[in-house]
Amino acid sequence: MRLAKRFWLAVFISLLLAQPCIAEDLHDDARHAMQRAVEFYSTKVATHGGYVYRYSDDLAKREGEGKTGLDTVWVQPPGTPSVGMAFVEAYELTREPSLLAAANAAADCLMRGQLRSGGWNASIEFAPDARKKLAYRVDAERTKSKTMPLNVTTFDDDKSQSAMRFLMRFDKVKGFEDERLHESITFALESTLKAQYPNGAWPQGYAEFSDLKKYPVKKASFPETWSRTMTAKYYHQFYTLNDNALADVIGVLLLANEVYGDTNQELAAKCRRAAERAGDFLVLAQLPEPQPAWAQQYDFEMHPCWARKFEPPAISGLESQGAIRALMQLYVTTGDRKFVKSIPPALEYLKRSRLPDGQLARFYELQTNQPLYVTKDYVLTHDDSDLPTHYGFKVEANLDGLSREFERLTTLSPSELEALRHPKLKKPGKPSSSLTEETRQAIESLDSRGAWVEDGKLKYHGKQDHTRRVITSERFMKNLKALSRYIAASETAH
Fold first, then answer.
1. What is the pLDDT of residues 100-128, one digit of tens each?
2. 210-423: CATH class
3. What is the pTM of this model?
């Protein structure tokens, strides 16, 4: 018995002694896997330094929101800015030089796709024939063309906002010393400020700056009547919250205030003031009882209005939650309670508007508050049995979480709010078991090329396409995050 006990004790001790070696081996494997994955994605997958959403396993086919060729890259997430941000965040954790080079190529791609109006559209074209149709800043201006090139900056679907977030973070990583990069993001931010309406809102997109005197500041109200069929031909110019575009712009401007607060105080202050004015717009845009929440878009009379043929004048369950989050973010930044006064009635209204399954309708009919849908033929209805599949007409209700966050923030003392504005940087802790397992899976699933390939189909290549294995930007970013977090945490632990 004593011999047996001694044997198992020796085994136990040897296992304990082996743990640092095992952890060290996994750390080295993780760094090697990260290097291989970054090299493959930035040199074999990328074109012109940019990315799209999905690729066939052999990289012969690619797509963003549609089929693309080698000379088209995507801006809209999870496209080039998202992948670029993944490189930056991984670099901040690991200081791996290849990540900096990959981020630099992605930033250069975006700078070559920046429009003269200041921002970006859904994609960037590099083929000469396609490129001459767009007004890119780096290209020669064509003033005698029969058809003027497109110059539309858009805030829809986080396009320009994602580009600005990445370029700002990268500008900071490079110590604000890259003059071309710094000029590009400064121009983008200044253009965003110029595009803001007097009431603090933005259009969905713009090609030129409006005469701001034409747009008086008004409080939102219900229209006396509204059409049951789409009437807005030029809805892009209206005040929009659609897909949380306004909330995303607020986030960009508050990030600019943080990033440039020490190095460019004038720009930082202008961005903060613009974010606060956007908060003032959200206060104005809240509809009165019996529906004290927000619409997707408003016309210049501040009435909820039509956008696309499946986006009617209505209260929105999705965008109302986004407005609440943005107002809380502004409260943390400013400490001004004017930004949170409107939240309790909005939360109560949304809670009593939940569907039987706990979700929220994307649209609630004005005044009646009945859930509002459209059929596959785009006819308004209260019946949810014939919905188009390309759009979310029901959304998750995160109302309990929003309520808890509201209660937490509004009970903090001024000093506690100040601490939230300037959080202390936390070093990564010891790798958790879940992070360790995620890291192992990322390493083991990397193929001989340095690619993460998974089962899947291409969405826009037709029913006859036989692709069954794909490479995606989302998977790459997810695994890169796991590897970089594990590397940083394991280095801290030792």
1. 999 999 999 999 999 999 999 999 999 99
2. mainly alpha
3. 0.92
